[in-house]
Specification:
The structure is a single chain. The protein has 5 helices and 15 strands. The protein is mostly loops and about 350 residues long. The strands form 2 sheets. The protein has a 13-stranded parallel β-sheet with strand order 1-2-3-4-5-7-9-10-11-12-13-14-15, with no helix packed on it. Helix 4 links the parallel strand 13 and strand 14. It is elongated and about 70 Å long. The termini are far apart. The N terminus is likely disordered.
Amino acid sequence: MGFTSIWTVLLLILLTELRVLCQDHYEDYVTAEEALPDTYTYTFDVYECAKECFCPPSYPFAMYCDHRKLKTIPDVPGHVRHLYVQFNEIEAITAKPFTNATSLRDINLSHNKLQSSLVEREAFTKLQQLIHLHLEHNNLEEVPPSLPKTLQRLHLGFNKISKITGDTIRALSSMTVLDLCSNRLTDAGIRGRALSGMKNLLQINMCSNKLRSMPPDLPASLLQLSVENNSISSIPEGYFRKTPNILSIRVTRNKLKAVPYNVFNLSRLMDLNLGHNQLSKTFLVPQSLEHLYLNHNDYKELNVSLMCPSVNQDHPNMLTYIRIDNNKLRGSVDYYAFSCFPRMRMIFYGEQQKPDEDEPSK
């Protein structure tokens, strides 16, 4: 045997020993949890999926059952966190599909045919990790009962809801967003201090309902209020006193003819939309306001001195944009506006309404 052959044999022996040593070292540190079977078997055995749906192998915690003409909610496996059942033909919600679904955090049941009479009272009670619930575009006539206290976002737009009661939603203290747009809410339908119990509510949307007055008992935590496209004719003096931190108010497309002079004097208000009303009297613009929409109203003049009674160089007004098109203004905006609002970037004057026939020409 030559010199080269001897070194070849020795090298093979050395590599064999190293391999065995590495195997022994690896086996010492592998735990029962880490010693998993191959990926396909693991996914199939542990992360089952309803036969009507699809669970992506890359993220099996989501179950997609949308756009499948389903009549009922499939049984949800215990590991599923995100359930998508929108765009189907489901009319009822029972507790049965959620028997083992204690990990659910999001449910999307929008664009179905849900009916309040077919929603079981205990349907959601076991879902103690549920955060987001989408029920918009259905036939619901009331807010579903027994919603879990963990719920943070509830979307109920485009239903037939005419009332909300304190018994139904007062306990939802974790709620941050409540969307009730495009329903049939009336003043009488908001009962029992329904909203005040939501101590963490940041945004409430009640656009396109049948309200004649501002919703009562708003929680102090509120940051955004949307009541567009109703029939609201007034805002009471001191209405926003209980919501001092509000940032955005939208009351466009209502029947406001006047508002109290100081009603919007809030220290954090940034966005105020009062377009498409019947306003003609000026009100105080708060120092923090950045965007103001007064378009499609009945202003014949814009009294900047009333909007801004004083100028503070150390703490200037923050208004940067104002929209005043489609009013009855005849002259240009007072140049004082740029002194009082030094951060103004644009005054959108636009086209104005034609004078009324009985209004004398100037």
